[in-house]
Amino acid sequence: MKLTYYGHSCFSVVAGGKHILFDPFISGNELAKNIQVDQIQADYIFVSHGHFDHMLDAVSIANRTGATIVGSWELYTYFGQQGVKNVHPLNPGGKVSFDFGTVKAFGAQHSSSFQDGNYAGVASGFALKTSDGNFYYSGDTGLTLDMTLVAKWVKLDFAVLPIGDVLTMGVEDAIQAAQFVETKTVVGVHYDTWGFINLNQATAKEQFTTVGLKLHLPAIGESIDI
């Protein structure tokens, strides 16, 4: 699978013949200023929760590409009200099949609200089974034993986990999360965007390596085969 990192928690995976985009926050991220939002491809856009730093560019990308936005019932309702033509609800515990494969939503331990303070539904993560491989994106979350349920549903090739601490898991908890979901390969996200989630990348990679795990930290705009 080809994964491209667009900064913060935004990334895309090409799998099952489709471009699958997650948590698009690009135009508001100074670190991603060299990314051209209007050139990003998407057939599906998964939104983990309602915070602006995970959905800022979702409407514009969906309207340009015709992509289907997938998220909690509250996000489904919100994006429909914003005029997005293709939206699909998916709450934790539910699963749905698309043309690239099957997705199951899992709960995330995190707050979720829109910019105006209104409730944006429960925060979620997503596990995807595709013909090219399987992966899990936890969304913004703290460490939770519910992650062990992911491994009961799917054998993962990799997981995408937040590692910046303060607002989400830090490195130590992300290592435990990788062990809970039974993967050896992790892509780290949700770090360095603001000063209070700065990451020492060399130390983080060393911590993962020490316990037999591989941590990928692609540069913004970089694509990796995984």
Automatic annotation (TrEMBL):
It comes from Xanthocytophaga flava. One of its GO terms (molecular function) is hydrolase activity. NCBIfam families: PRK00685.1. Keywords: Hydrolase. InterPro entries: Metallo-B-lactamas, RibonucZ/Hydroxyglut_hydro, UPF0173_UPF0282_UlaG_hydrolase. The keyword ATP-binding does not apply. Residues 7-190 form the Metallo-beta-lactamase domain. This is Metal-dependent hydrolase. The keyword Hydrolase applies.
